[in-house]
Specification:
By secondary structure, the protein is mostly helical. About 55% of the residues lie in helices and about 10% in strands. It has a two-stranded antiparallel ribbon. A two-stranded parallel sheet has the order 2-4. The longest helix has about 30 residues, at about 20-50.
Amino acid sequence: MAQGVVELSRGSEDKRIMVDSVTRDSIQYFLDRFYMMRISIRMLINQHTILFGGELPFSAGHVGTIDPECDIQLVVEDAFASARSLCENFYEQSPELKMTCINTVNREEPLKIVYVPSHLFHISFELFKARILQTLDGNAPERVLMF
């Protein structure tokens, strides 16, 4: 799938393939739906496998892959640490993270939601990875990521 999009992009840059905006929008719409369906199906398969298969949940508090007490800050900080480590391996430098997480219901407790930690980790990791690369390439205003 990705190879087809890359070839289409290269062809339109070389002016060998003419793609109008309607076709480009249709392709983007299809890809968005395709990947959303893929993510949804994968989450359902993982949930079913853990609930009814031989796999054990990640912890005793999990219901399959769902964590009823998912600590957002811990998951996001872990994702940043992984993205930072990857970046340091390739570029030998990385920005710092300054993150503020506020629980508006009870400011004394960490912010927790019912969510799939692995999904939140993956989303956060990809966002951090892109932002770190942008920061190191000099396209970002600061060397500190603020969220």
